[in-house]
Design a protein that fits this description.
This protein has 405 residues and is mainly α. Helix content is 78%, strand content 0%.
Length: 405
């Protein structure tokens, strides 16, 4: 187990530095687009490009990881995370919207691929401890909460942002990701190799051991877990990616945005070590329902929130609900797949999550531009509540997952 914990800590360390890039992309992606293009009506397009690129990248990345191992693919994600912010910075310097969109797309692809680390961590642990293993790695992202107030906040203090003002922060985000890439080379052996210890049969070639995706989706419990993962992620990112622009619309400064995003990240990951054990104690399906319900209530709070403290509390709750539902759903998905199937199942789930999240960010931008934050918040409430009700319905037959490990 020493190797398992060492690998988990290194994966967490990679996400520590990746999260600096992600926080900047979340907090200022929409602001960067509007600043460079001068078109407010497309404010939802930046997050949509970010998420859609992640959706397009993560499916093939997951399948590739089943064939070549987890770490070569994750390292490729870090490389994209270095290039993406640099391209965005170039777009700001040249005042070119096309480069900004390309850079945000690369950042989105990087995020989706590097977050495959969570499944890689889970599969290294015994079945009963997988939520714990996933939580160790996700806890690394909570450190991103310090990047905003301590690093990015002073860069924007008292400034009316121009495109040139955004160049240095985006380059700093690229530098953070370099450190994550370096740490990733210490993860040995590959998590997929370690997962063989819990398999019923040796891991051979993928065509001999991996069932078709359509068959995997028909297994009891898979669709419910996938619904929880997709709904929690899509609603969370749809609201999160627009929260910075909403705060500015309420009259707050760009520097204040990082307070909101930081507390949101604390909600997402600050209690993840506790949540991992809690999920296994109260049950994964119940955790999905409770998490989505917390997200719905937090979105409802945004109806009356306009100040930084109130918005921060609502975004904290949104992150906490996501934490509970997402860890439970992904742990269940890992347990319902063989080692050679997990990349494709998690990759397909992430494709749906990012794709729907992109649609919600784009649609949310239209809703906000047309009616403000109240209809946007109420839409998010509905989109979290309906999946919670579906997941709350007991299965027609006893839930008997085919645990591969």
């Amino acid at each position: 187990m020493r190797l398992v914990y060492r690998n988990a800590l290194l994966l967490a360390g990679g996400l520590v530095f990746q999260s600096g890039m992600i926080q900047l992309a979340v907090a200022l992606g929409t602001v960067t687009i509007v600043t460079v293009t001068g078109i407010e009506g497309i404010l939802g397009l930046g997050p949509a490009v970010f998420l859609l690129a992640g959706a397009l990248a993560v499916g093939p990345a997951g399948r590739l990881s089943d064939r070549v191992g987890r770490m070569p693919v994750i390292r490729g994600g870090f490389v994209l995370g270095i290039i993406g912010p640099a391209v965005t910075a170039a777009g700001c310097a040249a005042d070119t919207g096309g480069l900004v969109f390309l850079g945000l797309g690369l950042c989105g692809a990087a995020q989706a691929i590097v977050l495959l680390s969570r499944a890689a961590a889970a599969e290294m642990f015994p079945p009963a401890r997988r939520a714990r293993g996933m939580s160790i790695v996700l806890f690394g992202v909570v450190s991103g909460a310090v990047w905003g107030p301590l690093v990015f906040g002073p860069m924007f203090s008292g400034q009316e942002l121009t495109a040139d003002d955004l160049v240095v922060p985006w380059l700093a985000a690229s530098a953070f990701t370099v450190v994550g890439l370096v740490l990733s080379f210490g993860v040995r052996p590959d998590p997929q190799e370690l997962s063989r210890a819990y398999a019923d049969k040796p891991l051979g070639d993928v065509p001999e051991t991996a069932a078709p995706l359509s068959e995997i989706l028909r297994r009891p419990g898979v669709l419910t877990a996938m619904l929880g993962a997709v709904a929690s992620f899509a609603v969370m990112v749809g609201v999160m990616n627009l929260s910075g622009y909403i705060a500015v619309g309420h009259g707050h400064s760009h520097g204040d945005v990082f307070t909101i995003i930081s507390l949101h990240i604390v909600g997402m990951y600050g209690l993840v070590l506790v949540v991992g054990d809690l999920v296994e104690r109260i049950g994964r399906r119940q955790s999905i329902v409770i998490g989505l319900a917390i997200m719905a209530l937090s979105n409802l709070g945004l109806v009356w929130s306009s100040g930084i403290p109130a918005m921060s509390v609502s975004l904290f709750g949104l992150g906490l609900g996501w934490n509970l539902a997402y860890v439970a759903a992904n742990t269940e998905l890992v347990s319902l797949a063989e080692p050679a199937e997990r990349g494709r199942l998690i990759g397909f789930t992430d494709l749906l999550s990012s794709g729907i999240g992109a649609a919600l960010a784009l649609g949310g931008g239209v809703i906000y531009s047309g009616g403000g934050s109240v209809p946007l918040a109420l839409t998010a409430v509905a989109l979290a509540t309906l999946p919670a009700l579906v997941a709350a319905v007991p299965p027609r037959r006893p839930h008997a997952p085919r645990l591969a490990d």
